[in-house]
Each structure stands twice: as C-alpha cells, then as structure tokens.
Amino acid sequence: MPGQKLYPRATVRKIVKAHSNCNVSKNADVMMFLDYMLFMQTLIKEAAIEAKQGGERGITARSVRKVTADALAKFRG
Fold this sequence. Notes:
Blueprint: H1 9-20, H2 28-53, H3 61-74
Protein name: Transcription factor CBF/NF-Y/archaeal histone domain-containing protein
Keywords: Centromere, Chromosome, Kinetochore, Nucleus
Domain Transcription factor CBF/NF-Y/archaeal histone: 8-65
C-alpha cells in the first residue's frame, strides 16, 4: 500500500502545537506517532497476557485497565 497515510500529519502538528505552545520540528510528529503506536502495541500485549492469566477469553477493558499504569511507566521520559 505505497502512498497510503497512516495518520494526518498536519492535524497531529496542530494538536501538538496547541497543547505545547511550541513549533514542531520537521520529523517530530513522525516520532510521536511511532512512539504512540509502540505504546499501544505494548499495552495490548500486556493486556492479552493479563487476560489469559485471569482466565478470560479475550482482552477486556478490565485487563487493559490493570496494565495501563505499568505500560505508562515504561514510556515516561
């Protein structure tokens, strides 16, 4: 799927600028998006492990809530 966009770059840049009151450098929005995707992947993997250990069939909101604090701690900079 060449040429297909994963996210709207202009929108991400506007959101970041509005929240931080700073300009975003050339590829900073790409790095933020990749970091977000890595966080979501980690969150889902850990929630799946938690759900399996809890005897659940699939990932539930409860299993995601249980692992959210640990996943956020890993990604704090």
